[in-house]
Amino acid sequence: MANLSQSHLPGSSLQQEICETCGKRPKFIEKDGSVHPYCGRTCAKAQQSPCALQGCKSAGKSAFGGFCSPRHAKNAVQTRQSAPCNRCGKQPRVINGLCIQCTNSQESWIKELSPKDPKFSSLVDHMAKEWKGVGRVGVHKVYEIFLPRQAYDMREAYRMNLEALGGTHQVFTFRGAQCICDLGVTDASLCDWASCGICSIIKSSFATFEFGATSNSGRFGNGIYTYFDPSRADRFATSSLSSPYRAILLCEVNIPMKGSNASKSPLVAKSFEDEVRVFVSVAEAIVPKFLILYTKET
Fold first, then answer.
1. In this structure, what DSSP letter does residue 154 have?
2. Which run of H or of E encompasses 230?
3. Tens digit of each residue's pLDDT (9 = 90 or more) over 90-135
4. Contact 113/188 with Cβ under 8 angstroms?
5. Domains of the chain, CATH where assigned
6. Going by C-beta distance under 8 Å and a sequence separation of 6 or more, which residues neighbour residue 17?
7. Does residue 272 contact residue 288 with C-beta atoms inside 8 Å?
8. If we measure between CA atoms, which residue out of 248, 243, 250, 231 comes closest to residue 180?
9. Which Gene3D superfamilies match (predicted)?
10. Neighbouring residues of 53: CB distance < 8 A, sequence distance ≥ 6
């Protein structure tokens, strides 16, 4: 086999041909001008494995999760040779329960939790414990929120920056907003209405709110406000007349450790917390984790 450690030749028109395995990088070109079907060793090794569909002798490709084509990847799910993607349910799981296409998706999405899921019961207990308002709260549905990989990467970079400057701690808070669509009534589709605060926050991961606003004003200035007590966040929860539920978000917020360099550094975004609320000035500090649909009971 040719030495694939050699660099790609610059300036060649053949360099624009894309690797047949990953479908992303240019094919490797030898000094004599001969072109390999792969971009490098990793894709060459992946190409050598047969298609993961039982009975197929064609070469598998990493771009299709080890299958020779999207059709065979889909067939593997249909014949129960591979577990389906947690999002689309059509292609095989490859990374963190998702297929390659859904892993690379630039869109947020939500998945309903079964009432038997331990996370469901834990969230119900947490909301009931923290609810300090009048009456009781009844949780009917819980959806886990999944963000694009880029959104998670930005938040991890922010968290690591806080750690490098003296440490961080995570707190869980609630955020209420108006939900003008029927989210959770018929399906789990996020709407495109600019006036729907819940869907806007989930889709943008707190980059924008309803009507395109990028921050809220309050005691600590312009930024993002969330609350430890869900009944306080409930004051901002408005639902459509066709939905029997109110909607609230459970969020994870990264706060600098008190007294650390991070809490004093001008390079770190502002954040404050008291016994009632948590404030952060940038979206990278907060992650919407779960959408909770509930009703208030007297």
1. H
2. helix 230-233
3. 889 887 788 888 888 888 999 999 999 999 999 999 999 999 998 8
4. no
5. 1-48 (no CATH), 49-105 (no CATH), 109-297 (3.90.228.10)
6. 26, 27, 35
7. no
8. 243
9. 3.90.228.10
10. 67, 68, 72, 73, 75, 76, 81
